[in-house]
Amino acid sequence: MKYFISRAFLIISFFLPFSLYAFDISARPNAFVQDYAKMLSSEQVKNLENKIESFEKNTTNEIAVVTVPSLDGDTIENFAQEIFTKWGIGKKDKNNGVLLIVSLADHKARIHTGYGVEGDLTDIGTSYIQNDVLVPAFKNGDYYTGINGAVDKMIEALGGNNIVPEDYNANQKNSKI
Questions:
Q1: Distance in angstroms (rounded) separating the CA atoms of residues 133 and 7
Q2: Cα separation of 143 and 2, whole Å?
Q3: 14 DSSP β-pair partners
């Protein structure tokens, strides 16, 4: 019994720090832009929010932008999927949501799409946005330009426009922000 209790204590004490410090994904917010990492000014958040809200009203497609301080050891893919599912981004019957998530400390970003928009916002399109819009701006410390440009390109792609240049080669890019 003593062995069992000491082993249980060891297991609990190992996982406790992760549960105390892991970023909490709250219930679905009332806004499209959630800047938990404080990368944007309040005016920048408002500008993005207005743009995305207007786009949603005209198309029903939903774009969510989320910045987090850190992934706390999780992968960007898992984190994005958890937010996308928990918040229900996009209309349920259309699955037409898009999530742009940025982790400041991990230097990672991901564009996660619902099945209903994959025809317009393809994998190569999201790669292009991340590598050629987000990365250059973020490397210059200009987070708003990167995020705003990414939102503009997503809106353009979801409008049926080809956003990827003909000579684009995603395999030659480094997508670390």
A1: 49
A2: 53
A3: none
Alpha helical stretches, state H, 22-160:
42-59, 76-87, 123-128, 135-139, 143-158
A 10 A CB-CB count for 136 gives 14
Residue 173 or 38, more confident = 38
Output DSSP code: residue 129.
I
pLDDT at 1 over 70: no
* CB-neighbour burial class of residue 117 (10 A; exposed 0-12, middle 13-18, buried 19+): buried
pTM of this prediction? 0.84
Amino acid at 88: G
Which of 1-10, 45-54, 100-109, 161-170 is predicted with the least confidence, judged by mean pLDDT? 1-10
Helices (H), 98-168: 123-128, 135-139, 143-158
CA distance 145 to 160: 23
Amino acid in the structure at residue 161: N
For residues 59 and 116, is the Cβ–Cβ distance under 8 A?
A: no
Neighbours of 167 (CB within 10 A): 5
Amino acid at the residue 72: D
